[in-house]
Amino acid sequence: MNKIRAGGLTVDQLEAELNRVLSTYIKEPQVAVSVTEFRSQPVSVLGAVRNPGVQQVQGRKTLLELLSMAGGIDAEAGHNLRITRRKEFGPIPLKTAEADPSGDYFVADVDLGSLLEARNPQENIEVKRRDVITVPRGELVYVMGTVRRPGGFVLRQRETLSALQALALAEGLDRAASPQNAMIRGLEAAITIGAGVAVYRR
Length: 202
Known about the structure:
CATH topology of the largest domain: Outer membrane lipoprotein wza fold like
Strand content: 15-25%
Helix content: 10-25%
Number of domains: 3
CATH architecture of the largest domain: Roll
Number of strands: 10
Order of helices and strands: HEEHEEEHEEEHEE
Distance between the termini: 68 Å
CATH superfamily of the largest domain: Outer membrane lipoprotein wza domain like
Mean pLDDT: 82
């Protein structure tokens, strides 16, 4: 019997080739091929993780396991992550999943805080080969003026922040501060006037 090279063939192509070769020995052969494990399953983990790059995965892995393989979440990570999957590997089993404009990929967002705290275990889905997991950096909130530690602060695993929480990150008001003159702005162009405190978000 002839040897058949499986390397470089898809499952369907290998089944067709086996059926073709066996048809010289068996009448109407029906071959079914299933892959028990992919030796090389590259998954990209990018963005605000400690070791971004391509992870070579063996066996089944979940989102949390992939984040762990990438060294964990960076301190500047935002409040969600995004999964991009090639259409040929099937849909992403999440409510937020949708096809991208090209129709070649599925895209889904996962709340990072919910995932890490296991508030919804169904979000910890199995990762497929060639998936791309992106962890965007968190938005910045700037606290300027007469506070003890002025500057920009990352929202991290949350989407919103109250003015009091922002002031807490800035270690509170300085003695010379005038709380009645505090301003909250929504654009980077916000400025501090006098001895007031300006809080704004980029």
